[in-house]
């Protein structure tokens, strides 16, 4: 899952991002509305978490830009205002959900995960293929009943490959979906993550390399 955090309180934005990354999500962060618009115009996100009151461009404007682009990204709006009218206005412009500050991080995670399952096509809550079971909501993975001790990045890579349901996933697609905007397209990070993931999955090997194309789960 790839998430955008647009929040002008930098400490809050960075704290949210760090927490989501520990749950194997790829997270980009910005601190004003114009930067958020630039990012959603460049990358594909599953969920955008937008502070409603941001400098440069408001969260409302960012939300409208997303809607006008006909993208499938889901929007979770954050606000310090707790009044019903404010929440109704936020939902009225196209936000999918609303969360009032201060909030519990666990609740934000639950809402982000719920919104990701509402993307088109709907994301399956639990993924299974070739004896591998992966539950993103509980950050659990196993193969043939053996629990897999994966790093957040290995977990994210495995999730992307499982969601492909046997189709080939290119290294570029993995960088786009499992890494953030700072990933170097010329890095060997994908190859290294794939090597360690294969080792932890064990034998027989179930992730095959398709020459000049990418990776595929048998």
What does this protein look like?
This protein has helices at 10-22, 33-42, 59-68, 84-92, 105-116, 152-163, 171-178, 189-201; strands at residues 2-6, 26-30, 47-51, 74-79, 97-100, 127-129, 132-135, 140-143, 146-147, 207-210, 214-217. By secondary structure, it is of the alpha/beta class. The protein folds into two domains: 2-116, Rossmann fold; 127-217, Winged helix-like DNA-binding domain superfamily/Winged helix DNA-binding domain (Arc Repressor Mutant, subunit A), CATH 1.10.10. The strands form three sheets. It has a five-stranded parallel β-sheet with strand order 2-1-3-4-5, with helices on both faces. It has a four-stranded antiparallel β-sheet with strand order 6-7-8-9, covered by helices on one side. The protein has a two-stranded antiparallel sheet with strand order 10-11. α3 (59-68) links the parallel β3 (47-51) and β4. α6 (152-163) packs across α8. The longest helix has 13 residues, at 10-22. The radius of gyration is 18 Å and the shape is elongated. The protein starts with a strand and ends with a strand. The relative contact order is 0.12. The mean pLDDT is 87.
